[in-house]
Amino acid sequence: MEIIFATNNAHKLNEVQAVLGDGFRLLTPRECGIMEDIPETQATLEGNALQKARYLYEHTGRDCFADDTGLEVAALGGAPGVHSARYATDGHDFAANNRLLLKNMEGVADRRARFRTVVALILDNKEYLFEGIVEGRIAEAESGAEGFGYDPLFVPDGFDRTFAEMSAEEKNAVSHRGRAVRKLAEFLHSIS
Ligand code: ITT
Fold it and tell me: If one looks up domain 2-191 in CATH, what number appears?
């Protein structure tokens, strides 16, 4: 089955392709002629995931899905949350975001945090949402070079390594996106 995945993030694309397996061919927006940035202006992860998926569906008329992810830190009242990509700057500056997060967590004993992903699927003009959550904590310093974004600072519960110190398979087995995309895959298999 061919389906469009509304992302320009190559790391995400690889993670999601690995979870969905060979039965699905993921197309990027660019491969479908969408060269512009897809708007992401809503106040919630659900809203943004739906906004991206609807934009693609309206412009291509093809089945598609989008995800939006936020890192929710308990001691920061759930920040950076829906603003995770633009926490420190206007762009996707992962290094600056991690520096700011460490600074805001200086001297904070409660390090609890979670990643939350919402996937919005549009299939035959019907909309579906799938959620994946992984609980963990913010490390005192960055470790590891795998993955992307906040991975060098996030230690999932049950581990003493950050996501950036894990292989893609290990991360996918427990991660927010892995969980949400496995729900998506189960749904797509159940109806095909
Ligand atoms: P697209 O919108 O093009 O898919 P994005 O990087 O903006 O890519 P999101 O809006 O879903 O992706 O994610 C917001 C930010 O959250 C992202 O820029 C990263 O900093 C962070 N993030 C998302 N998923 C992550 C993950 O699995 N590990 C670490 N950080 C992640």
Answer: 3.90.950.10
